[in-house]
Write a structure and sequence with these properties.
By secondary structure, the chain is α/β, with parallel strands linked by helices. It is built from 9 helices and 7 strands. Helices cover 49% and strands 16% of the residues. α1 runs parallel beside α2 (44-55). The radius of gyration is 17 Å and the shape is globular.
Length: 196
């Protein structure tokens, strides 16, 4: 059973497709025996996916700051709700516990979480797959940015290609299962060659 960390919005988004796809992802994860790790909230898309997996009796672990808990946006009815002081602690716990990461549509908090784990994967701090659930083309501009950064020599092609991107939950899980980390020594050597 894989522990999948989901990064996603504390809002629903205006288009109902975001809610529908969050529920679909939760359904697929549950059907594949996955455990959910997430931000511990009872609002937005994070609540939709948590509710979907709770209905299917999956284990759910949330991590939330005391500040957010005081705002009454925590979900105490999950298997475990870990309360921390800072957002950095929150992210570190999720990063350590998870086997893989999926970013659903969300705002700047989701972007922060997504880019952090992408960097950690690139640097081989951990060998865990990172995926974008590209609902409604939400991440098309991020994918275009990464492609531009690759073409302009700021990201290595293998790192960009190692990001799993799909609007289909089953395809995301297949990518996670088949993930292979990029060899660190190879691209470090290439970077060093550029300064000679």
């Amino acid at each position: 059973m894989k522990k999948i960390c989901i990064f996603c919005g504390s809002s629903m988004g205006f288009d109902p497709i975001y809610r529908e796809k969050a529920a679909e992802l939760g359904h697929v994860l549950a059907d594949n025996g996955c455990e959910l790790l997430y931000g511990g909230g009872n609002v937005g898309l994070m609540n939709v996916i948590a509710e979907e997996m709770k209905q299917r009796h999956c284990k759910i672990v949330g991590t939330i700051t005391q500040h957010l808990l005081d705002m009454r946006v925590g979900r105490p009815d999950i298997d475990e709700l870990i309360v921390v002081e800072t957002m950095a602690e929150r992210k570190k716990i999720l990063e350590d516990m998870a086997d893989a990461f999926i970013a659903m549509p969300g705002g700047v908090g989701t972007m922060d979480e997504f880019f952090e784990v992408m960097v950690l994967s690139q640097l081989r701090v951990f060998d865990k797959p990172v995926a974008l659930f590209n609902v409604n083309g939400y991440y098309d501009h991020i994918v275009s940015f990464l492609d531009r950064a690759t073409r302009d020599g700021f990201i290595h092609r293998e790192h960009a290609d190692n990001l799993i991107v799909s609007d289909n939950p089953k395809t995301l899980l297949e990518g996670i299962e088949n993930f292979k980390p990029v060899e660190l020594k190879k691209w470090v050597s290439e970077i060093k060659e550029q300064v000679r």
